[in-house]
Amino acid sequence: MSARFRSLLAHWPVGAPVLAAAVLALTWGRSLSPGFVALVSCCLAAAVLSAVHHAEVVAHRVGEPFGSLVLALAVTVIEVALIVTLMADGGDKSSSLARDTVFAAVMITCNGIVGLSLLVGALRRRVAVFNAEGTAAAFGTVATLAGLSLALPTFTTSTPGPQFSAAQLVFAALAALILYGLFVATQTVRHRDYFLPVTAAGDVIDTDDHADPPSARTALTSLGLMGVALISVVGLAKGVSPVIESGVAAAGLPASVVGVVIALLVLLPETIAAVRAARRDRVQTSLNLGLGSAMASIGLTIPAVAAASVWLEGPLVLGLGATHMVLLALTVAVGTLTVIPGRATPLQGGVHLSLLAAYVVLAVSP
């Protein structure tokens, strides 16, 4: 019995995505009882852990920074699909869902993932060391995308409310796509060494030292299973979203909390992968995951919802309120001071995590 149990445990990364996909197929489009919600939640957690495992296999095969890019793109594509699907189902009440989810993703990645990674790395080695050039380039791109897509609509006057006009929305979508494309080219082609982990002395680490890379067949299998796991994560999250929405409404919480919960669910695989990388003294890999996810979230979501707004009913609200504008400004200022030296102590990690905590508290009690 123990041998069979160990065998099952060894194959859980393969079984978890398949089981989650089967549960998704059985529950899709159906209202769930509390018992089924618990089952779906367990499958959701298993799919998240499986996605992290397979992403690490793929990352080990292709190396950095390509591995971080694979997970960030995969998760963000699924996140965009979830947002558009929920907006199509929600009508006017979901007009600000894209803004709430994207801003939540920015706060979770730039303060949560970055803060946790710096804290774990600094506690392990006293000082967390990373490549300032690459991290500054990534953070500057995130700040620009967030400013153009989330801050600027609050101050435009062509359309009433915190919305873009049609021409402004097209500009924001094109700018997001172009900037994201330029960043990917910089990260993977022209200045790949800026995004590789570094030693305490500042030397670039271009190889992994913990195991031989998996075979191409194993990496392709993991890539396929990661896709199944991520699709299952989003599909199961959509299945439990009515329960989340009714729970938020019953608790008297703002509707924007739904966007926070969606972002937390979708970004959980990247958070776990980033913390694991920081524990292996690969803080740069963790920052690639966090900032790359923030950038992909804005760079892909805004063009997607801009295209979807042609057939979606209701307004598309993108502009942030005053409270969130202050939090975004603090995040940009603190993040800039964090990345400039190329090294951080536990203090910097704690500061970023305090900003995330402030965001969560204000989301629940605005």
Describe what you observe in this structure.
By secondary structure, this protein is an all-alpha fold. It has one domain: Up-down Bundle (A middle domain of Talin 1), CATH 1.20.1420. The protein is 75% helix and 1% strand. The chain has 12 helices and 2 strands, in the order αααααβααααααβα. Helix 5 packs parallel to helix 9 and helix 11 packs antiparallel against helix 12. The chain is globular and about 55 Å long. The termini are far apart. 48% of the residues are buried. Its main location: membrane.
Summarize the structure.
The chain is mostly helical and 366 residues long. The protein has helices spanning 2-10, 12-27, 34-62, 66-90, 97-125, 132-151, 166-190, 216-250, 256-279, 283-308, 322-339, 346-364; strands at 128-129, 343-344.
How is the topology of this model organized?
Layout: H1 2-10, H2 12-27, H3 34-62, H4 66-90, H5 97-125, E1 128-129, H6 132-151, H7 166-190, H8 216-250, H9 256-279, H10 283-308, H11 322-339, E2 343-344, H12 346-364
Antiparallel strand pairs: 1-2
Helix pairs in contact: 2-3, 2-8, 3-4, 3-8, 3-9, 4-8, 4-9, 4-10, 5-6, 5-9, 5-10, 5-11, 5-12, 6-7, 6-10, 6-11, 7-10, 8-9, 9-10, 11-12
